[in-house]
Amino acid sequence: MEKIFEKDLHQWLEHVRIYANNGKVADYIPALANQQPEINAVAYYPIGDEVMKAGQFEYTFTLQSISKVLTLALALVQHGEKAVFSRVGKEPSSDPFYSVAKLEVNTPAKPFNPMINAGALAVTNMIRGRDSEEMVEEILKLVRLLTDDPSITYDEEVAKSEFETAFLNRALCYFMKQHGIITGSVEELLDVYTKQCAININVQKLARIAAVFANDGRDPDTNNPLIPLHVARICKTFMVTCGMYDASGTFAINVGIPAKSGVSGAIMGVLKKNGGIAVFGPALDKKGNSVVGMQLLEKLAEEKRWSMF
Ligand code: GLN
């Protein structure tokens, strides 16, 4: 792997920004439809060094599906592998993230993996808390720890907008509830899930989260353990096999690092023992990945020889 300099970030972001024209901002969550497709940013957080950045690096966006990695880590810490994987599988599904198709395959209603919506909903259902407010607090606590930023919170408008229109996610929940994969109130679960997806962040903080995974669960500045090693390893493995939805195979060939994307247009990538990278550009390709983000990561991966394979 070759060294990354801030000028590389500027240069490649400038080079790939035009690709925003090839994508479309997500609009199935009404509040996301307002995002400006021309906004973009990148940050690289090297372990033990200063963050580097380019573009609109202060701009905040919501985590969306990237939050699935963090709730998975939290559920694994709280309940252990056996309990978590009794509710959700470990295999890629090759279907879009919102798909209901495979819920009837194998064990009834057990989602294939925690990176698709069904699986993430089953995982969030396990987070400890007496009510949805306490569950959201638990998730925020982890995000604040990993970003080293106690001010992290969620965007109320985005959360409300998704909550009011999450009919497909409600359907997934009711199907899973029928089969005992999830328990309790579906409305409360959706309240937690839409808030976790609406957590506000910028590329610098997201790159820090990725850097924790790159550092095997340890703080990239202090080396203090934040997530147990085996939990970080499981999360990174899911990022490789299912992190980029049904484009994960292509991404593994073209980029070759653990990564997770969200429909807000963000992607975080993990450079083992090296650092974390985060890219933002809200225009998405057909599979829901940021077009600018994908281009930027492909170019950097090729130039800097990132592939772990
Ligand atoms: N909140 C979004 C949803 O459930 C997250 C999906 C995503 O980022 N792919 O639809």
TrEMBL record:
Q: Name one GO biological process term.
A: L-glutamine catabolic process
List residues binding substrate. Answer: S65, N117, E162, N169, Y193, Y245, V263
Q: Which domain of life is it from?
A: Bacteria
EC number(s) per UniProt?
Answer: 3.5.1.2
Keyword Hydrolase annotated: yes
From the UniProt record, list the coiled-coil ranges: none
Enzyme class at the top of the EC tree? hydrolase
Q: Calcium as a keyword?
A: no
Supply the alphabetized keyword list: Acetylation, Hydrolase
Annotated catalysed reactions: L-glutamine + H2O = L-glutamate + NH4(+)
Return one GO MF term: glutaminase activity
* Pfam family membership, one: Glutaminase
Looking at the UniProt entry, the stretches that span the membrane are none
Q: By its UniProt entry, which NCBIfam families does this protein fall under?
A: Gln_ase
HAMAP family, A to Z: Glutaminase
Task: Describe the protein's quaternary organization and the partners it interacts with.
Answer: Homotetramer.
Family that this chain belongs to = Belongs to the glutaminase family.
- According to UniProt, the name of this protein is Glutaminase
Q: State which gene encodes it.
A: glsA
